[in-house]
Amino acid sequence: MPWRRFRKKVERPIDVSKSIEESLEDAADGESEEDAIELAELDDATIAEAATGVPDEDRAPTELGDKLRGVLDEAAQRGGLPHSAPRGIAVDRRPGAARSEDPHAARYPESDVDLAVEAARGLRLKNPVMTASGTFGQGVEYAELIDVSRLGAIVNKGTTPAARPGNPQYRIAETPSGILNSIGLENPGAAEVARKYGKAWAELGVAVIVNVAGYSVEDYVYVVHEMTGTPGVVAYEINVSCPNVKGGMLFGCDPDLAAEVTRAVKAETDLPVIVKLTPNAPDVVAVARACEEAGADALTAINTVLGMRIDTRRRRPILGTGSGGLSGPAIRPIAVHITYQVAQAVAIPIIGAGGVTNAQDALEFLMAGASSVQVGTATFADPLAPLKVIEGLAAYVKEQGLTSIRDVIGAALPVRED
Ligand SMILES: Cc1cc2nc3c(=O)[nH]c(=O)nc-3n(C[C@H](O)[C@H](O)[C@H](O)COP(=O)(O)O)c2cc1C
Predict the structure, then answer these.
(1) Domain enclosing residue 214, as ranges
(2) Less Cβ around it within 10 Å: N or C end of the chain?
(3) What residue's CA is closest to ligand 1, atom 21?
């Protein structure tokens, strides 16, 4: 399925009298062909589809969608799109397919640079760049636009035991240097995710980390159980930013609750288990330590930061749920700070997330002690952002004369006495 995203560097104030789709269509009216091509690359899904990866089958194709598809096809005929395999050439991306047979492998700037990292205990990735959960659909949709096999890994949309319709509208609001979202874990449920995407994941030749969400310890275990044996899946990322139905507190805000989920999921699977920390915890370092003691193989730092915007005309919060999760460059200093603190408290790998838009941002996380990063909100403005981060890191390793990207991990941490 193709996609529509926010366009780069365009201020798009929220007009609450219209749906986001209508506003985007209005904004696209009268665009020059060049702009249309850019939009076409970003394509024509709704924001909810883009965030969940689940096509809205009742949605009729839009006029804009048809127009953009036409322009996209024309552009492809004129010589293909950057960063993607040219159309009409089949590239074997199955795991195990010899990379030397890939006619495009050699042209990628990272091909001859050692970017391999240990993203979690037992999980070595060819490079440290993943996509963040909820910002890259189920990954397969992007294969039409970019060569996703270049990514270190993709993290799928939060997966719950049963299908969830998500939260009421509005679910996205722009903020200075970021966005607020309250998508509400819209997804088709674990069994359907495994059935629908497993085969495609394996064919893409990219490592898939399943993001697991739930409202009880049993929920998390159930999702992992349902996903067991799904082709392409290499690890689980546990989203503990969910309220526990028993007490209402977020699993990730309480060290004991977070440890309980970690232990239960570890007992269910032999794959690496990554716990995604919430910056909304009163003591995130205590949660990190508890998860490590409970057997976590890595930690992701961080999930979104609680925030709110008010529609001053309606005198109500803009988001249907009132508050939502803030992401994008606005939260990067918070995320780097937490990474730096957690890196000094645990020995397991850390995956940095929060506002990574380019290689310099990624380097901040790596130097703060993360061994890999996730790119999330940045892909809404530029679907090529994760690939540009990989290319930028490769260029950095070359320019600095490093042996590998691993040389910079933790470089900014205080020197330990022991
Ligand atoms: C629209 C949207 C949906 C998200 N959905 C999920 C999710 O389902 N599970 C999860 O663990 N994190 C989710 N996140 C959080 C991101 O994975 C990431 O941790 C956060 O956005 C910070 O990274 P960023 O600033 O690069 O986006 C979502 C973020 C956004 C913007």
Answers:
(1) 117-408
(2) C
(3) 327
Same domain, 61 and 127: no
Nearest-atom index, ligand 1, CA of 187: 8
Question: Contact at 8 Å (CB) between 71 and 36?
Answer: yes
**Residue of 219, 220, 277, 327 with the most ligand 1 atoms within 8 Å of its CB, for mutation:** 327
**φ and ψ at residue 332, rounded to 5 degrees:** -60, -45
Mutate to test the pocket of ligand 1, among 164, 241, 303, 389 (most ligand atoms within 8 A of CB): 303
For position 73, what pLDDT does the model report?
53
Catalytic choice (242, 319, 338, 350): 242
Number of domains forming the structure of the chain: 2
Q: 58, 85, 105: which is the final residue of a domain?
A: 105
Weakly modelled stretches of the chain, pLDDT under 70: 1-106, 418
Nearest protein CA to atom 3 of ligand 1, as residue: 134
Same domain, 247 and 346: yes
Q: How many residues does the chain have?
A: 418
pLDDT digits (tens, 9 = 90+) for 61-111: 444 344 434 444 554 454 444 444 333 233 334 333 334 445 455 679 999
323-376 pLDDT, tens digit each: 999 999 999 999 999 999 999 999 999 999 999 999 999 999 999 999 999 999
Distance separating alpha carbons of residues 250 and 242, to the nearest angstrom: 5
Residue 9 covered by a domain: no
In-domain check, residue 376: yes
Taking the whole predicted model, whether its pTM rises above 0.90 is answered as no
Give 322's DSSP letter. Answer: B
Q: Which residues contact 411 (CB under 8 A, 6 or more apart)?
A: 366, 367
Query: Last residue of some domain: 78, 105, 132?
Result: 105
Q: Do 148 and 74 have their domain in common?
A: no
3-class DSSP state for residue 13? coil
Domain co-membership, 352 together with 241: yes
Residues 127 and 243 in one domain: yes
- 3-state DSSP call for residue 300? strand
Look at residue 417 in the predicted model and tell me its pLDDT: 74
CATH code of the domain containing 171: 3.20.20.70
